Each structure stands twice: as C-alpha cells, then as structure tokens.
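dumping the sequnces here before i forget
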Amino acid sequence: MSAVRQAVTSHPLDGSIAEWVWLIPLLPLLGALINGALVLWPRLSRGADHSLEAREAGAASSLAGTRWLTTIVGPGVLLLTFALAVAIFLAMRGAGEMLTPFIRTYASWMPAGSLVIDWGIQLDQLSMLMTLVITGVGLLIHVFSVGYMATDGGFARYFAYLNLFVCAMLVLVLGSSYAVMFVGWEGVGLASYLLIGFWFSEKANADAGKKAFIVNRIGDFGLLVAMFLLFSTTGALDFVGAHAGLAGASPAVFTTVALFLFLGCAGKSAQLPLYIWLPDAMAGPTPVSALIHAATMVTAGVYLIARAATVFAGAPAVSLFVALIGAATALFAATIALRQWDIKKVLAYSTISQLGYMFVAVGTGAYAAGVFHLVTHAFFKALLFLGAGAVIHAMHGAYHHSHQPDQDAQDLRNMGGLRKYLPVTSATMWIATLAIAGVPPLAGFFSKDEILTSVFTRAQGSTLASASLLGLPGSTVLYLIYGVGIVTALLTAVYMTRMMLLAFGGLNRTGERASAGLHDAPAIMLVPMVVLALLTLGGGWLNLPELIPLGPLHLLSSWLDPVSGEASRALGGSLHLDHSTELVLVGTAVAVALLGIAIAVMKYRSPISNKDKAVPDAGVAALLADAYRVDEGLDRTVVRPVYAFSTRVLWQGIDQNIDRAFVSGGRLLSRVAGQAHDALGGGDVGRYAWVIALGVLAVLAAFTVR
Amino acid sequence: MMLADALIVSAILFSIGVVGVLTRRNAIILFMCVELMLNAVNLSFVVFAKMHGVGGHVFVIMVMTIAAAEAAVGLAIVISVFRHFGAVDLQNLKLLRR
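..and the predicted 3d for all of it:
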C-alpha cells in the first residue's frame, strides 16, 4: 500500500481548484489580523488608556465607525472559505475515486537532521469533510454572533478570536503531519482559552479559561509523547510516512503510541477523567460554546483517532479501552445532565455524553459512524447552543430592561413558557432535541443508531471481540458498552426533554415585570438556527442504513472508505447482521428514545417554583446537581496540595531564598570589588609605581622559581 | 670577567633608580632616577654589543635620543606643574582620581 502511494506521482486533483487549498486556513487568519488591527487601532491612536475594559466601554460608541468593517470581515472571510471548500469538494467529487491523499508542501519548517517537517496540507476525504463542517457551521455561528454580540464593547476582539479559532481548526484538520496538526491543536486551545475568558473582568471567567488550558496540557503531553514515539520508531511524522513506517512494528509499539494518542484525544474531547474543563468553558459567550465546545474543537479527538486509524487498528485492546472510556463518559455525563439547572450546563454535559458516543464508535473501529455522529452532532448541538444563546439573549434583555440585572438569565427555573415568547427558537430547538434523543427520521437517530448497531455487530466474531481488555473478553466488553449506550440514550431523551419542558413548556416564571420584555431574537440570529434545523432534519441522509432505504445508501461510509475503511475492516471485519436482528436493535433504540421523552413529560408536567423560591436539591439529586462533586474532590486532593506546595516550598522556601541569596550576594560582591579597586587605585602615582614594581617582581619570580 | 662586572654595575644602577622612583616624591628627583634606569639599561646594551655585534650600540643611540626628547617634554610638564600648584611634590597630584 505504502509503496503504491509513493509510486503514484500524478493525482486526480493536480491542477484543479484544490491547488488553492492553502487559502483555506489563510483566509480566516487574514480576518483575524484585520479584526485584531481594529482592536488595536484605538489603542495606538489614543495611546494613554491601556485598560482594555475601560477602552471597550468607551469604545462602543467610537468603534461604531469600524463596527461595520468587522461585521463584513468576520463572517465574510468564513463565507469565502466555505465557498472555496465547497468548490474543492465539488472538484473532488468530479475527480472520481481518489485513493491517495492530495498533499502539497509549501515550506520547510524543521529540517533537523533526520527529522524533516514541512508546512504541508493533506487533502483527503476526511479532512475535506471536516473542513466543510468547520467552515459551514462556523459561517452560521459567525452570522449568529453578529446579532448576539451586537451591543458588546469587545465586538472586534470577539471576531478576531473567532477567526483565529477557525484558522487554527483548519490547520488542525488539514495539516499533513502530526507536527502541523499539533500547531492547529494548540492554536484551537489558545483560541478556546481566549474566548472562554472573553469577559475576563469577572475572575470566574478568567479562571475557567485557565482551567481549560491547564487540563488540556495533560492531554497535550500525551500527544507529544505519542509523536516522539512515532518519530523514534518510524523516523517520520507526516501521516502517510509515519503510518507506513509502522507497518512492521511490534504490537507493543502500536499499543503505546495508541494509548498516548488517546490521552491527547481525551483531553481535547473532554473524556473521563479529563472532562472537567468543559462545563466551566460555558463561561464564554454562547456562540463560542456552540462553535468550539460543541461542534468543532472538542471533536478534534475523534478526528485524530479516525486519522490515526492505522495505529488504533494495530492495537485492538487500546481500541476497546477507548470505546469503554467513551461509554463510561457518555453515561457519567448523561446522569449529571439530568439535574443541571443552568441551561448551558445541561448542554455542556450533553456534549460530553455525545462525545462519549463518538469515542465508542471510533473505539470499535466504526470510524465512519463516529465521524457521522460528529457531523450530525455538529448540526444539532450547534443549533441547541444557538437556541440557548437566543434564550439567554432574550432573558438577559428582559431582566436588563426591567432593572433586575441580578436575576439569573441562564437558570431553567427562571424560564418556563418561553414557547409563547420565542416561537422560532422553541420550534428549532425542539427539532434538535428530538434529533439528539434519537427520534427518526432526524439526523441524530441515524448516527446514534449506526454506532449502537456497529458495537452490537462487532461483539461477535471480530478482531475486537477476540481481543481482551484487563482480563475481560472483548465480546463481553462490547455487549457492556452496548448496554451502557442504550441506557445513555434513555437518559439523553430524559434530560433533553426535561430541559425543553422547563424552558419552553408550562407557565412563565420569569416574573411579570420582565416577561413583557421577552421576544424572539432578530433575523440575523434566527436564520442560522433555521438553517441548522434544516440540516438536522436532513443530516441522516448523509449515511442511510440498508434497513431504511430512503435514498442512496452509505454515502458517508463509502466517502471515507479510502481513509479509514481498511483499519475499520481490520478491527471489525465486514460482518453483517441479519435484517430481523437489525430491526430489533433499531426498534429498541426508538422505543428507548420515546420512553425517555415520556418519562420526562410525566415528571416535569407539574409546575415548579422559580430560582428564588426553589427548594434546594437533596440526596442523589443534589449529588447529580453538583456533578458528583468531582471538582470539589479534585480541589481538595490535587489543586490545594499543589498550591500549598508551590506557595510554601517553591515560592517561600526556594524562590525567595534564591532571590535573597542572589540579590544580597550580588550587592556584597560589587561592594567588595569596589573597595578592592578603591584600595588599589587612589590616584597616587607613587602607589601605582609600587604596584607595577611588585608586579614585575612577581612575574620575574614566577619565571625564575619554577 | 669584565662582562659580569659591567652587568652587576648595570643592575645596581637600575635598582637604585627603581628605589628612587618608588620612594622619592619630588618630580625632579624622580626624573633623575628614571634617567638612571635608562642609562643602566644602556650600559647592559653596550656590554652585550661586545658579544653580539653592533645592534646594541644602535639601541643605545636610540635610547639616548628618546631619553633626551622625554627629558625635554617631562621637564616642560614639571615646569607647568610647578607654575600651577607651586610645588613639584607628586603626592599632591591626584587629579586623575576626580
């Protein structure tokens, strides 16, 4: 395979529009630079006031002059990028079957001995799909942001960060080597940090940004180690070369590399136990949560595992482990989501849970199913977050205009009955909710069902089933994962319906004064939501199963086959369930979804009181509402001991003493040197003469007395 | 053994000069001591010229020329120092320090 790849010199895409692929990450970077310049311009022209906040507060009026430019540039570069991506996609479709990736190298980055890393772009079916999702969903969210951030003083700064994020994300998926991908990997981390702490004047927001960055360091450490191992084994870091070089490596190498890669993925994609940063990441503006913490960045781990499918296919036990962690994460986060009162926290835990599903898929070698769920999840979760943004926007505005700014605009207990005030938001969010719950024929139903079905299929007679994890046979592990997946599907339906009923159903709890100010968002925010709702309705057609032949079958699976098909068959075989079994599985999934919705409807029919009059949760409910108190536990066992150690030992013990030693030592040294010099000098010629004479005598003595 | 005697005389003259430079404060006497050292060196040049050819003589002429020029410049400085400070005692001349 690798020999064939290297022998091929011409490529179907040679000379096509795909030669312009380098513009794809560059256009958003250009947007980021322009918007960044618009942020810095008032500072440069005015000079004196360096406080960003004071400047933004005052700049809201003076910046109105450049605001139109940001409005055009911010979403505009995304529109251009998306158009280019679509053009390249059409060229790929037209070029016929493309078995090898289209790779272009633009410059040398690190030519160091045998390590040669180039700035290169790899265009294949997987990176093309990711690019379309990132630029497409990204464009919609940029447009939404124009409305959502309209009154924010940091308008240009926001779009500078958001464009930077898109640029980094595109570098991540288009990079032709692990090293270039890592640049994007860290770039999205940086943009995420900047946007989580966007409203940094509140310490909690800034802390949330830091938490995300620090927790991700643990994962990045794993990714780096995996890269070192790959290089020391294969001598290459580009995807094609490294994966080809692994061909003859021992199973131990595959296992180690795969494990460390997964550590990186678990950090970025918020899997157990590194998920803790994602709920806090909700401190950022809501469109940011939609783009970064639901649709794109957090799925980078899923992308990486699909990209490194060759590595994971060589380590079935690690693949099982990935799937098991995914299943555990899915269940764990879903239980927490059952009892969250903050609308964004529900969605955050839901995202973690859905990412767990994706890891189940890529862990069982169903790479196409994982990427399929990634795409549909990008549609419906982005929609849910944008809807939540519209709700918060309305709630915030209502409380603001009725002079109750201390009321919580994100608490579900303060909402209720919003269907009447926000009809469009309500309708689109219900579509997304039914999709994530797994109700046919919406996008989420198809992707989740494909994951569960492929887990079930592989439990018998596949490479995975005959592998073993920690003494358990793979078959048992897979059945366990399937069970967990079904239970999680039930919980998903419950918590999503609960959230919707609390926010949109029943009577309004916002308060009489404020509820008069509630209204649907402006068109610029509603249009992206409607587009996403349409995508959610039709997303399932991307990859229809044989059981439901409503159009061309397996579009996505066959599209991705040149990238991950081989690895997928190596892990899972090409087994097929008979129709009756498959029918039972689909029936179970649908029944579970409907059951979950019914449970939630039964439970949340009766009216509840608003936040001020709420009775505190008790028992298990309180434990779930506090997210199992993991943060508190980590605070006690990790954060505070480390903090105490750094304060007492490293800072007060070592740092301060070294400071003292060096500062006073330096002072003492220069004083002694000064006094010595003073003693030698003194301007007395006679003394100089003595010193010279003694010096000459000393030199003579040194030569004479050997 | 005439060479050795001459060299010993030269060494004694030079040492007297050095001790004079080190111990005396008067600029004129210092000058005389420097001349003494120069001439001690001249003596040893002449002595060695007897062994190694006329090169030594050439150097003696050179040293005497330089010494004459140096004496002229040095005495001029001493005179202007005397005019300025009213004394030629080197202990008072510490201007370089400030």
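Residues 1-8 of chain A have pLDDT under 50 and may be disordered.
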